[in-house]
Records
---
Amino acid sequence: MTWLGEQLGRIADDMPERDLGARAIEIHQRRRRNFTALAAVVVVVVTVLAATVGVRALPAEPRAAARPSSPPEQSTIKVGVVPTVESVPVFVALTKGYFKQEGLTVEPTIITGAAAAVHQVEIGALDLAQTDYAMVFKVNEMGKEFKIVSGLYQAAQGSFAVAVNAKSKIRTASDLKRKRIAVPNLTGLGPLALTAVLKRAGLTLRDVVLVEKPYPDMVSALHSGQFDAALLAEPFVTVGRETKHTRIVEDAMTQEFANLYTAGMTATDKWIRGNPRTLAAFQRALAKAQRLIASDPQQVRDALPRYTRISRAMAAGVALGSYPAKLDLTELQRVADLARAYKLLERPADFGSAVVKGG
């Protein structure tokens, strides 16, 4: 029996015959309306649930990098930099406003080299400074408390070279015996690399006379005959070549020095402990600049004319290495091993005291 038949039978006793069909149809229509309404509610509920699940399933928007709730302990810091290709990330971060975004005002101060910066950092004249890693290992061996806080540069072929006056009779490294050679500082990575060049020629540092000279002054001093050779760094290798004032005798970044990590940033352990938020802010801004350079190397060539004495045309021909945003302890070990092999260090470097956590 159909549902409609059951309804007719159930109400037959209570209704006159003529009303049976009308009442059954009315009941049927009422139930259809109720069912339709219920179905509509179910559709709405299912739709809302589906939309909710769909929203939850969508990938979340990337969150902005977390910032500390408190500002840096120092809003203004003095940072020592050598005017070579190595220090470009500092100037890119300045130009792009990355330090400002971190609540820092960075005042760059030109220094001649890593060794010259040690005293200035130690007495607080500089808060941080560009260094070479061998220098940090050396001063810590002498009882200082310096730490490498971030990387800056990894050299490439042509980044450093022994050069002479274009008219010089010196042709090979073996011709450097008893010659005066300009270096930025008398200790550190520069003399270390020069030691390797001389050793391959059968010479030692005792066979030459080292003279301190800032990188920006070396090409003109070579040209005027103030000394016989110089250890140049880019962009001054390119300056000497393009002005035809110098000639390259030997590339210093070859063999065991190939692709060496040559520069980073350092600070004293005391300053680091007193300014953890300041250091973290500096590290974030510097790393951001290094990542930008990695994706767009033209940033380096655009920045060089702003703080060195070279034209944009010369900057286009500069040999560039890379700017790693993270320290590689394996590469730092290479530097430490070379420093021991060439007698700059007397003992193995203590990485636990020389490298800041998270650098």
---
Amino acid sequence: MLGTILHAPGDVRCVHLPEPEILAPTDAIIRLSASCVCGSDLWPYRGLQDIGAPMAMGHEYCGVVLEIGAAVKNVKVGDFVVGSFVLSDNSCPHCKHGFQSSCEQRAFMTGAQAQIARIPLADGTLVATPTHPDEDLIPSLLAVSDVLGTGWYAADAARVQAGSTVVVVGDGAVGLMGVLAAKQKGAERIIIMSRHKTRQDLALDYGATDIVSERGDDGVTRIKALTQRIGADAVLECVGTQQSMTQALQVARPGSMIGYVGVPHGVQFDGANLFFTQVGMLGGPAPVRRFLPHLMDLVLSRKINPGKVFDLELPLQDVAEGYKAMDERRAIKTLLRV
């Protein structure tokens, strides 16, 4: 089969690999209907995260079950399934509290930028659709696996509710999904910080009401002006840099919440500043499995279309171009047809 291997920074290749096999009775094997490149894949691609050795890439996936282990009961061969980028048993105490991304058996999916993939902990990770979906819904169901689930978690963690004023820091795919989520949760005003026209247009399509192109202190000043100097009821931090986190804290009103889902790189906090800011924070890797059934229903009923976030579609063989296009910001998110 064909799969994607990152050999070194900037060196990602589609190569022939052995097909995965059942290794544990809780495994399933699926044939992917589509995969994609995630913004977090760019960290090792850019050399900002040490890989040590060549690594199989890809953690977003949907497809058809080819084989199941002896202990798998919730999905069967032939089912179309969507799974979270975090593998979980969905039965430990943390899972039962809705934090499957902190499962006691937690592992992170790899090797999904491929034609076939092994899914450990299949019963707790995969959710099947009632029937095979229409082809045009595949991109949106793929988005549920991570990018939509992560944006939704950011809005959930920030306690977005009807009538809220929301600020989204970051106009990447996750930030755009945060806009969609905030709109679905009834936010009255959604302000996204964005400098890029194509991303601004998609944000407006998903429900953003205001665009702030300024950064740093200028961006904070602009948002304070838009909110009558109060700040936002909820802030979605979807980048993970020191600047983005600082901006999130500065535009949040006292008593508000920040949902932070950008993987942090070099982020540090000042304890006294946090103390006097009086802002709550909740984030981390998104417990996508908690939201999977609801988000899949929204997609299948065509109430949302997160698949529009894929603005570049390539065959798996051209995965290197998909990475390059996202690295150069020529694409928001690359869909890979397998």
---
Amino acid sequence: MGCSKWRAAFNFGHLKVHSKLPVFFTMIILFIYLFYCLNGYCESLPRPVYDQRSNLQTKIIFKDGQETEQLGAYNASPVSFVREQLSDLTNSDPPSNNISIANNFGSKKFPQAIIIGVKKGGTRALLEFLRIHPDVRAVGAEPHFFDRFYEKGLEWYRNLMPRTLEGQITMEKTPSYFITKEAPRRVFSMSRHTRLIVVVRDPVTRAVSDYTQTLSKSPGLPSFQNLVFRNATTGLIDTSWSAVRIGIYAKHLENWLRYFPLSRFLFVSGERLVTDPAGEMGRVQDFLGLKRVVTDKHFYFNQTKGFPCLKKPEGSSRPRCLGKSKGRPHPQIPSEVLLRLRDFYRPFNLKFYQMTGHDFGWDQMATHQSS
């Protein structure tokens, strides 16, 4: 009888030991997990992308003394949003003490599309508008690779590009490429399939705008009429002056057509980019093979500056307009000087219309008085 009681007590104790084993192993697992987290290993795991959406804000970047702004994909589809956010991760510098997988997202590629011109035509506005699109990744500052830094090599150029995912387009903007003699051959050597965008504007207005920009930096500059004429008596235009030379679009286009067919070009109207930004952006997105994400809902017209601005994105307290250097008032220039310059450009404009198959209507246009 005594043995039976002892045996029953032993079996009961055995059951208690078995019931405590799961608790014991659970405590060991929790202890190991806490040990790894305290030593920083858990931080190497990235936050879920969808958790970052609430923190998405406009990012302001200062490059070459200019303020530019990258707008979040607040209007994009979920897939495009994730793609944009993952691309942003690749451009951030991870803490050196942590293991990071961010640099495994995307790769640096040569640009598939380049805005090659023209200066004071509206290239900055076009690039800022394009940046709204989640499938466009662009360099902020102008690389000037094909006109100034070509000797640094293609690998140097590619390293300037942002990381992109499959389906995204890499872009850059350098307006001086359009007038650089060597640029077409160099771009062609990189890729004959490069898409080329040229933003053009009434060459008379463009020349005045160019002069206005230079005057703001050099107040002692001679008057516009003193610079535009080689001989004031005969009214001979000085084509060596860059402000005049840039506007001879047909001459520069001939140089590019030696290497690229017309189908590789899109000519954007600088005037329509102001009066109908959504319409021109639709053409640009079609040319780049992108879904029409950037539409009229993104723009409003700023009466003070005389330019369209981007409506404020979610999380931002103000809309996005171009910088103070845009929209400068033009100096007063004698009408006869502008008329003479318009007569000079007329045959070049007509040739450009024929080459591109598009009449931009500059010869019927009054000269605008804002830059």
---
Amino acid sequence: MARPGAVVVGGGIAGVMTALELARRGESVTLIDRWEPGHSRASSTDYNRVIRAIHGRDEFYTLWAREARLRWMELQAEIGQRLYYECGALILATQGHCHWEDATAETFDKLGVPYYRFSAAETAARFPQFDTTSIAYSLYEPEAGMIMAHRGVRAGLELFQRAGGRVERGHVTTDADERLVLNGKPLDADLIVVATGPWMADMYPRTVKPITAVVGVNVLYTSTPDGDASFDQENMPCWIDHGEKSFGLPSTEGSGVKAAVVIPDKIDLDNDERLIRRETLARTRSYIRKRFPGLVGQKVVDSKFNQIILTPDTHFIVDWHPKHDNVLLAGGCSGHLYKHGPVFGDFVAGVGRREYGTADRFKIAGRRKLSPAESPSGR
């Protein structure tokens, strides 16, 4: 049997978009996942994800996010499904802790990214859903919003299959030398891209695990009030609230208002059930009482337990395995990869085909923890 041209392991947003871009470059591509792409265990699951260019002083990700927005719009037109809602993104700058937001404004000015700066009073007038107590100011990015996450993965998969790509169900692991094994047999191809998200750490205990941490994030959806559309995406933006370690999205397609208080949680990827922790309910309700008085007393209508893999600097991983020169590692989402999906997949495909080298920030070696002021994620 002929050796496959390219294999992509992992059917989340990183793997699907990489497989799609490789197929569009003329490669014969097989995409392998343990479960059906879009499954509920994946980091790329859930209803939606924020897409915004706000990345502090980091111009690289700011430009990637701006390009990704256009790519998502193109994919939306191609697939004929709603993938993107442009409801805007609001960044709340907490009094005394505005370094990341200050840096974002400077980056936006330099790169010409449209935004508005509102005082606390102006924020409350423009977005009355928010209690702006403790807020120094806000940045509003109008050309931002949300991607429908599960739908985006499935749309990318459909386009990949239309381009001639092949999808297989299988369990890829590694041996003691970190060689890839599929269902107990060596996996071989001219190019193998491993995009298994948090599972990459256990697959590569020597190469990836030392520079990553896998954490869980509890997400709750709260009902909008009866007869009140003010918390729907037509009237409310996505938001990031670093001072409260929180973020969220307005109700979309009847989902309810999504809110998360980011307190990293432990997770056993293969054995834990995807259920939120009870203590998270109290923390999130406390946050909602503080920031959204109009939602006080509303019921939680849904919940998700997501997992992410964090690198020390919150930069992604796109680098060749140090011992296996046909294996390209692609991931390290650090909580902000999904929105970049189409651009990330395009970049990984180019690196995989040796069209160019990877970026220094994506290399495995030389990782260090960044200060909040340096970090593209602000944490």
